[in-house]
Amino acid sequence: MRRSIRSCCVLLAAAIAGSGGACRKSSEDQTAGNPGAAATRVTEVSQRLIRGDPGTLVIQREELPTDFAIAGGEPKGASEYSQVYFNPQALMDESGAETGLLGVIANLTVLDAPAAASQRFTDQGGLEIESVIKDIQVATPGAEPLGAEPYSTTIGGADKVLAFRVHYILDDAHVFEYRFRFRVANAVGNLIISALATAEGKEPATLSSRARSIAERQVAKLNSARR
Does the pTM exceed 0.85? Predict the structure, then answer.
C-alpha cells in the first residue's frame, strides 16, 4: 500500500504540472494621520511585481515540517515550476497518521503582469467539484473518490483564493487533501496538502490548520519577493 501512496504523490505532481506583520506596522506608522500618503503607499505596494525564479520562490523543503523529503521537481519553461515532497515516515507505517502529513505538492507560475496571472488562474481550471474528482481518477489510478467540496478560506496577502477539501480511498487507505489555488500580483500558485486518515478513518484534527499554514507561508514568500 505504501508504494502505491508514494506513486500517488508523484502522479499528482505530474497532473498539476500538466494543468497548468512588522513591515506592515512600519508602513502604517509612516503614514499615520495622512490618508493621502497611506493611499499612495497601498498603491505602490499593489503595483510592485513578484520577481525571481519560480523554482526558488516555490515553497522549499526547509520551509516545511522537518519530516519531509523531496520526491522530485520539474520546471516547465522559465516561468513555471512544480515540486513534490513526501513524508517517508507516513509511507513506512501508520505512526504519523494522527498528526503527520503525507505529501505536499506545490506548483508556481510567475508571469509578466497581474492581468496575465489572473487569466492563468482562470485558464488552469480544475477547481470545480467534477474537475477535482476527475483529476483524482486520472492522476491516481485505482483511487475511489469519496467526496470533494469547496473549502471557504482567505489568505492574507493573496488577491484571490480558491480551495477544496478532498477525500478518497487508495488501496484501502483513506486519504484527505486540501487543495489551494491563489493569485498574488503576477504569480499563480497551486498547493495540494495530503494526509492519511486516523485509525478510525477520520480526517486528522490538525490537517486543515496545517494545510492553511503552508499556504500562508507560500503566499508570504511571494509577497516578500515583490520588487
Answer: no
Q: Which long-range contacts (CB under 8 A, 24 or more apart) does 160-164 make?
A: 160/118, 160/121, 162/127, 163/215, 164/127, 164/129, 164/132
Enumerate long-range contacts of 124-128, CB under 8 Å, 24 or more apart: 124/19, 124/20, 124/181, 124/188, 124/190, 125/19, 126/19, 127/162, 127/164, 127/179, 127/181
Q: What is the pLDDT of residues 34-64, one digit of tens each?
A: 445 444 444 445 679 999 999 999 999 999 9
> CB neighbours of 203 closer than 8 A, spacing ≥ 6?
167, 176, 195, 197
Check if the beta carbon of residue 111 is closer than 8 Å to that of residue 85.
Answer: no
